[in-house]
Design goal:
The protein has 147 residues and is mostly helical. It contains eight helices and no strands.
Length: 147
Amino acid sequence: MYDQPRPNQAPPATTFDRMLERVRYEGAYPTRERAEEAVRTVLAALGRQITGDERVDLAQALPVEAALTLTAQIPDTEHPTGWGFVKDIAARSGTTPAVARWDTGAVLAVAARLAGPDLLARILHQLPDGYALLFGQADLRPQQHAA
């Protein structure tokens, strides 16, 4: 089943090209193609983590090409911590965890600005510990410690 657009929603505020330029700047990537590779890799991974209204609303906040990458993924039943998310990206893309962390930070910082603070708060509430830092936000939730 495909996510259906919600009526009366404003179109994305930015184009895919503009998003790529922002990611290229954030990540200091040498080419547009490298920025696009990071966007597609990270948004596909994020698409495996978020569900429900947050997934639909984020897709609507992103440019169409980015939204299709996000929503083409089937959500996983298990959700890793933020560090597990980065390690999964590294394993799937064949890069190091350091490169995957860099890519994640560059892409999710731009996605956070496109989503806005309210939607970002809802997304972070849905995800396990460690994701706020990936989105460039302070992680203010109390840490859950195993006894």
